[in-house]
Every structure is written in C-alpha cells, then in structure tokens.
C-alpha cells in the first residue's frame, strides 16, 4: 500500500491553525508535525487546508434520476410521485451511485451511507450494482438496503384506529433473507464496503421486520439505519400504531444503540431526545430535504445540548436536489440560529466540521478509526485549495468553507490512503463518460402528473387538516 | 452596438419549454421564434437554457473582506464586530466590488444593488471606485450609498423611553450633499450605472435624513432602498422611537413607493404587509443572512399572498458568506415550506425565477425594460450549460437550476446586449489577477476579539431577555 507525505499543509489546531507535514503510511496517519522526513510520494500542501473526510450519512443514490423535477409536495405525496416515476434498471442504479459518489467526494465527503432503494425482484442485483459502483470510485460505502414490509399507503395516518392495508409484495422473511445474503456477499469492512440493516422506518415496517434486523445486526456486527419522524404525519401515525411515540417504541423493541443512525428526527419531544442520548443513537440531519418537503426544522441545538451525536446527510437528490455535502453542512448549521435567540448555543464552523466528520464516524461505530486527523487513524482525507475565488480573501479557512458557498475547492481526496481525487478531478472513473451516460439516458421534461398523488391527495389533506 | 442571434436555445414557455432562436439587435431583444434568420454573430444555444438575468437586489460589496471570519452573533453584535475590523481603503473597495460582480454574474445575476459602505471622509471616492469596478466588469449597477446620521449604539433598543446617543460624525445636510453630488457625477441609467437614495434604516436614521432622501428621489427620479425590520431588536426599537411600527412610520413620512426596495422585512405584522402591498413597495429577501444572524424567517408566503412584490438578495458577504445568487434563490424558496403546511402556497422553481428576474426589475422601476425574455426589452441575459454534471440527468432544467446546487453552469452573460461572460469566464476583467490581489491583501486568521462587542454585549443580552 502506498505511503506519502503532505508537506506544509494548514490544519486546524485547537482554536487556531498550524502548518505541518502529514505522513501517511500503509493507509493510516503515521505522523503530524512540522518538518517531518519525507516518506513516499510528496504532496504539496502549500495554500491548502487538510481536513478529515466528511460523511454523507444519509442518501438514496437512485433519486438522482428525478432530481429537479419532483413537484413541491410534502413527503407523503412526494413519495407517491417518486414511486410513480421510478422504474429503475440496474444500469441506472450504477450510474446514479457513481454520480452520488462523485458529488459527495467533490464536496468533502469520503463516506456515503446509501439507503438504497431496491428494484423489486432484483434486490441482490441492486446491492451488487451499487457495491460495484462505489468500489470503482473508491469512496467508503455504507450500503443500507431500504426495506419495508408494508405498502406505501400504510405510511399515511388513517385518521382512525382501524388500520388495514394491502399486503406488501414480499414477505418479511424473504426480505430478511435478502439482507443476510447481501451481508455474506458484500459486507467487507476492511475493503471499505459495509452493509447495514436499514428498515425504512416505523411508517412502513412491522415489528417483525425490526426484530429481524436487530438479530442480523447483532449476529453480523452490522450498523443500523432508519428514517425517524421526518414529518408530522409520521408523528400522528406512531400514536395510531403504537399508542406511544416512535422513539419510545424503537427503544422498547431494542433498535436504538450506539451504532444506530436515524435520519431526520424532526418531530421528537424532550423525552424522546433523552432516549436518544441514553441509547447513544446518532441523528443524521438532512436540512435541505426537511425544508424542501416542508417537514420542519429538526431540533438540532436541543440534541447537542442533550449530548446526542449529530451528523449530516444530503438525503436523496430528489428532495435536495443535489448531493453537495458542504451545502448540507452550511444549511444544517445556520438554519438553527433562528430556533434559539441565544447565540451562545449556535453551531460554529469548527463544530460543524466535527459533526460532519467525527459525528459520522461515531454513528457508524468507527470513531476509533475515522473522523479526525489523528495519528493511527485511517487516512480518509480531503485537501482544499484555499486559492479558489470562493475562499478568498483569506480569512478563517474553515469559516469560509462551512459558511461560504465553495465551488470546485476540493483538490485531493484519499480514502484509506488511496488517492481518488487529484487536481480537483476524480481519478478512478471517467466523469465525462458518466456525464454523457446521464445525458443520453434522460430527457428534458416538465412537471408530470402522478396518478397516485391524485388518488391519495384528498385523504392526505383531510387527515392533515388542510 | 453589436447584434447577435442565439440559435436552438431552450427557453421557458408557459408551463413547458421551447427550443427557439433569439435575435438581439442593438442591445435589445428583437425576436424570439424558431428558425429566425441570423442577424450578427451566431451563438450556439444547443443544450443550453436562456433566462433573463437575475438581480442581486441587496448586498454590501466590501463585506467580502470579512466573509468566513465573523463570529456567530446576532445582527446588532455582529455589526459591532464588523465595524471594529473594517478599516477599508479604496483599493479594497475596488477589489471587493469586482469580486461581488464576478460571483453575481457566475450565479446568474446581471444586476447588483450595492448598499455601499462609505469610507468616512472618502465618501465620493468610495462611490467613484465602486462605479469604476462595476463599469469595468460590465454588470448593471445600482449603487445605493449606505447613509445614516445616528451612531451605531442608537440601533439597539435602550429598554427605556429616553434615548440619547453620541452624535454621528457627519451632519445630515452634509450627508445629503454627498448623495446629490454622487447623483450628478455617477447616475447614468443609460450606461448601466444608477445611484439610489439608501438610508441604512429606521434604526440609524433621523426623519430629516429620510425626508432629504425622499426629496432627492423625487427630484432626480431615483429609486429608494433601505433595510427594514431585519431583527426583533429593530421591531422593539421602532416602538421606542415612534410609538408605532417601522412600516407605519415609513408610510407616514412618504418613503414607501413603487420604486422602494426594502431589504429583509422579517418582523412585519399583517397590517404592515397590507401597507407594503398598498404602496407597491418591494421586499428584498435575504434568506442566508437572516439565518446566519438568527434574524428569523421573513414571511415571504404571506407577502406573495398579499400581492407584495418580492425579489432576492445575497446581502453582504460577511453574513452569507458568499455572493452566490442561485444559493439565495434556492434557500429563499424552500425555506418557506416549513412556515405553511399547505404546499399549494409553496414557491415553485418557475415562480422563484420570476421573483429573481422580473421581481427585481419591478422593484427598481424597470419592469418595462428588464426582467423577462420579451421582445423589446433590453438584453440582460444568462445562458446556462445544461450538460454540467450538477444539472444532470436531464429532468426539468429550471427545477435543477433552482433546487439543485449548480456548479459552474453559467456559460454566457450579456448585459444590455454586451457579452461579459463567455465559456464560463468573465471576459471583461482578469479574474486570476483579482484572485491574486485578494490573496495578497489578506491572511489566514482565526477569531478576533471585538472590543465593541465586549462593551455592548451585556446590555444587549439584558434588553433582549437573554
């Protein structure tokens, strides 16, 4: 495995910056100090900032195919439109995984948690395809196959206590078998590919499915991932379904843990927040989709005050409509200043960087190996070009990166010590070919009419009091 | 004046897109239709989208020098820090005006309203310098010299009815003389340079200053610009100062009109909103600084429902911390989905484009000449490259542009028919030299200690109940 030395690079040091050399040996950070002897290749770090790689801790890669075109709708109706127009094939899955990886890398991410939508009947092929794409790019992949065992209509509160829905097309047992087979075939943490158990959320999953996921997680040492209380409708639904909050229910069934990441967490009360802290669960904050879908503002400052670990995700590109992690980090920081008039609670740019890096590593049970520039940790690193116009004039580099609107500032990226971006270009795949493929397989169009939205909209408006 | 024809370009047409040719003759749009005869130079519009230029309808260009480094503070304390570290010279004013123009152009803007901070004692020189910079770049400039006649401490509520503050360093009459001289020297609407009367806001201006501005506006046919109710503190202050809301006061003294643009407008009540509608005033929405400074969410959906014209601004780069107009438009659209659960009120991408273009033109009393692709209007145009990865796969181009996170998508820009961006590069100035100058005149640093913040913070916390 290659070794290299980054010379004269700016790094964050306590409340200041330091100019140092960084030695990488066999994929790990071997030393950080000024004037180190050169080991391996020399990388010029002058006028550059080195940070640990960020985690894009929640996304759905194949949503890239519908970004920009989804109607302005709340989640429940938006989902209906999404699925009406999502007849994916594995080639599309491949290309959108590549695209998601590229946009994540070029905005400072070295890891992606892909809550991967599975093509019905081609579930393992879908997982294999995404695995192949992420391996080709070289990004660290956490593939979380999106599973459920209730049909989409079950996700909207009925407004009544009786709940009956058409059966889901696949049995709970068959779904769990797919996940176990995926673990056997693709779960290779040492090679940068991880499979997670990832029930969609309480809105579409039975207790049996959650139980099966917990069992697999314990048996194979897998991280757990799920949506949680993204919308007010889900809050209502949990009360209908369980007679308690979704968090109380998830605690009771044992899903919450220090390797559980929960996407969104918008509609939690103070008791719920205490449960997340107690169980050491991680919140994945997806500020852009929460705004785009009108879901609300997740109480991130409260989470931080309660000691809950928080990190950031882009969410799927159909509700964002991008995969730019720096944008998610910026919005996920400044959005909360309007929720608490005491500015002493506001998130600083350095805190945001820690949330995006170490926060992600913690949530995936990898804080000992990833998430900070520390000797002994694996070299998932990003080098930013501080001479870019969007980072000038020179002030506070981390402030510019987090609060500004950087364009093309990622110079180099290494994952596990392997360089996969150099001079601002992804070196492992041909991005121009990717662009051409995405172009050829799509066409410009305007708003479409979703039949499912037309069917369920009146019910949704009634239940939600609109 | 040059003429040209853009061939085979995508434009928005009612609820769809059309591929057309666009003829520009002598700086104006002469024809829009398929298969037009070529006039002048041919521009290839294939795989490109043509939109009217947007307005960066509120900014403070020289704040670029402190972007990225300002503490996370609410406006009143943030301003104190800003002014403690703002010893500008005219060379800095020149460079930051260039930088503001470049970032605005490369994010779809063809006009900038610069609420320009004046160097004390060098007021006319400051205005001359900004004028020179904008003329060199070729962006349409609306220079709104920032004037006040009360000292900074007057901008924080006293918590009492008695209000005394140290006098401002320049008399009201002297300030108005500067503006009148600036109008004589620099106000050249036909050449793309406009001077506005632009009192800072009710928080720092006497009635005499407002009256003088109104008089100049009427005499010289100048647009009017001001901050309005950006923070809760200003809402309190207006009650202390006038015994009524700031909007009621501004209406009473005659400042509101169909050529008045008002930045922020966060803390207005329903009666205030009705006044804005009645006076045909324009709201300039600055979503990013409102979040960054914790000012709040401006009630933009209410404005739209009341028939108030709304457009977007980046605000100064120290509170944003960028000048990317597409980012402001995206956030200024999706942010409001959490303020109204009825998604039928949410802003669509096409509406956002109209707000950013025609909305800006209306506010500056130029709706007959600018703000849409209409035959007879001046050619302030932006051509977007739809083959950029951030705008792929091909779905709805305007949806991708507004809701996505476009990078380097501006291919060409024309202002009054003159091309000033080609192949994604500004052609009128040397941007690499600009970068080098910004780099050389700055240094990386971390948080600074503001003495003024230390002096006023305790009072601020008391008055604001923190």
From TrEMBL, chains A, B:
Keyword Hydrolase: yes
Keyword set, alphabetical order: Hydrolase
Molecular function as annotated in GO: guanine deaminase activity
Database matches in InterPro entries: Amidohydro-rel (IPR006680), Metal-dep_hydrolase_composite (IPR011059), Metal_Hydrolase (IPR032466), MTA/SAH_deaminase (IPR050287)
EC number(s) on file: 3.5.4.3
Pfam families to which the protein is assigned, alphabetical: Amidohydro_1 (PF01979)
Domain Amidohydrolase-related: 50-419
The protein's name in its UniProt record: Amidohydrolase
Organism of derivation: Nostoc punctiforme (strain ATCC 29133 / PCC 73102)
Phylogenetic placement of the source organism: Bacteria, Bacillati, Cyanobacteriota, Cyanophyceae, Nostocales
